[in-house]
Specification:
The protein is mainly α. Helices cover 66% and strands 0% of the residues. α1 (14-40) packs antiparallel against α2 (48-78), α1 (14-40) runs parallel beside α4 (96-105) and α1 (14-40) runs antiparallel to α7.
Length: 169
C-alpha cells in the first residue's frame, strides 16, 4: 500500500485483485512479526542503544521489503499470464532476503532448521521463507489457491485457443 491505497496502474482480473489486496493487507505484519520473533529470541545480552539500533534497522528492512513485495507483485499480476516468469510465493520468499541480512548484521544467531527447509531455502538462516500461503497468513491460503487455479485455467485456455485452427478462412 502506498499512501493508503493499492498502487497498481493496469487492469487486473478479479483473482489477481483479491490476491493483491490480501497481500497488501498482510505483508507488513507478516514480515514484522517474523523478524521480531527472531530478534526476541536471539539470546544476546547487550546495551539498550545497540538493541534499539538493531530493532530500527530490522524494522526498516521489513518496511522496504514490504514495499518491494507490493511493487513486484503488482507488476507480476499486470503481466500477461503466458509471459509471467515468477510466481507470487517466489516474490514473498525473496522479500525475506533483506530482513535476513538485517538480522545477521544485528548479530542474531541462525535458527535450527529441518532438512526440507535447508534444501528448499538454503539462504534462509532464520526460517522466514514461506513454504505455503498459510505460512504468511491463514487468510492467504484460499485466495492464493484460487489465484493459482485461475492462472492454470487461463494458461490452458489461452494455449488451447492458440492451437485451434481458425475457421474464418
Amino acid at each position: 500500500m502506498v499512501g493508503g491505497r493499492l498502487w497498481f496502474h493496469g487492469g487486473v482480473d478479479p483473482y489477481s485483485s483479491r490476491l493483491l489486496s490480501a497481500v497488501d493487507r498482510l505483508v507488513d505484519d507478516w514480515l514484522d512479526s517474523s523478524a521480531r520473533a527472531r530478534l526476541g529470541h536471539d539470546g544476546r545480552a547487550g546495551g539498550e542503544s545497540g538493541r534499539t539500533r538493531d530493532v530500527a534497522a530490522v524494522a526498516e528492512a521489513c518496511r522496504l521489503a514490504a514495499a518491494t513485495v507490493r511493487r513486484d507483485l503488482a507488476e507480476l499480476l499486470e503481466t500477461d499470464v503466458l509471459l509471467q516468469r515468477r510466481n507470487p510465493l517466489e516474490i514473498l520468499r525473496s522479500s525475506t532476503r533483506p530482513v535476513t541480512l538485517a538480522l545477521a548484521a544485528a548479530g542474531v544467531p541462525s535458527v535450527e532448521r529441518d532438512e526440507f527447509q535447508k534444501r528448499s531455502f538454503p539462504d534462509d538462516h532464520y526460517d522466514l521463507c514461506p513454504a505455503t500461503w498459510s505460512d504468511v497468513h491463514p487468510d492467504l491460503a484460499e485466495v492464493g489457491l484460487e489465484w493459482g487455479a485461475w492462472k492454470a485455467a487461463a494458461v490452458l485456455s489461452r494455449r488451447r485457443d492458440q492451437n485451434e485452427p481458425r475457421s474464418d478462412s
